[in-house]
Amino acid sequence: MAVPISQMWTVASYVLKKRFSGQKRYPLVLMLEPLFRCNLACAGCGKVQYPPHVLKRMLSPEECFAAVEEAGAPMVSIPGGEPLLHPQIVEIVNGLIARKKYIYLCTNALELKRRIHEFTPSKYLTFSVHLDGQRDHHDFSVCREGGWDLAVDGIKEAVKRGFRVTTNATFFDGTDPNSVRAFFDEVMDMGVEGVVLSPGYSYEKAPDQKHFMGRARVRRLFRAILSNRKPNWKFNMSPLFLEFLMGDRKYECTPWGSPAYNIFGWQRPCYLLQDGYADSFKELMETTKWEEYGVASGNPKCANCMVSCGYEPTAVIEGFGSLKGFWGMVRGTFSKYKDPHAQKLLAEWKTEPHAPLVQIETTNRSLEETNA
Ligand code: SF4
Ligand code: SF4
Asked: Where are the transmembrane segments (predicted)?
């Protein structure tokens, strides 16, 4: 696991404190979405389809700080939209660093090289760059030729300047595990701290509805990708969550572990679903019908979900909340997950060629509309 010791210690002591205080539900990572606007229009995205008047709206730094203090989580992930399009993103980031929050600023990095000089390296700040695989696969996934090259330029510049950098990838049906493994080699050579990965979630609003995977296909794909690991691969995630993706662990969702706050308020129940909004974090925690979510609830919207924002909190709480979980985490950190069956799966994997890349032209149009 590539997470620094100080961050692990902060999260571990937070989990133990909550456990000993008897608190049943608490957040680990606040998903803070300061805007939905983006300079890409990925086919699997469920955020950028809002009408222009919504895409124009943004959270102010004060609203961001208030949400962070209300939730009290030790980590803050800033997805979007594209956070680097927010004119006050530097002020937001500096305010969170001053509050000693571990920040993952999730960016497609198209603007990263141009704006990197505005930020200061800190153990609290990580640029989490959206990179969905090798060049062709990433450009296809983000519907933008040249997207990979721009993102990699941004990564190299950030690494050179001493920032913490990770990559985050979302995988859909049709992903070639051999290519993903070659991608791990490439990003580790760029000097990133670690890789973050997740299967895609079937957003109702996403333009491409054909490539979301069921649970069995997710497990097969991740077993092929994550078994027989190379010694230099590092993952910026809980090893227990990776075992869950490989089918070695059964977990229930912990939706309150990664609560989402955006221009509409506190989103119920999670970052992915929108079953209404609460005005305060307290209201979100106390009035959401949590039993109606997760696979065991039978909710069809959760049936195929294995995404990190729902299931990684479960893994982290198990890892830091019990001796057995902690031992599993230590073992997972050093294991290479040798598996001859997965090796055979890789050798026999049939890659389906994807259709030609479609540049989604609405990106620029919608940017012009929102900028107007
Ligand atoms: S980079 Fe792609 S997935 Fe991320 S917010 Fe923009 S359009 Fe959505
Ligand atoms: S299973 Fe997925 S969609 Fe359902 S509440 Fe959990 S994270 Fe959200």
From this structure: none
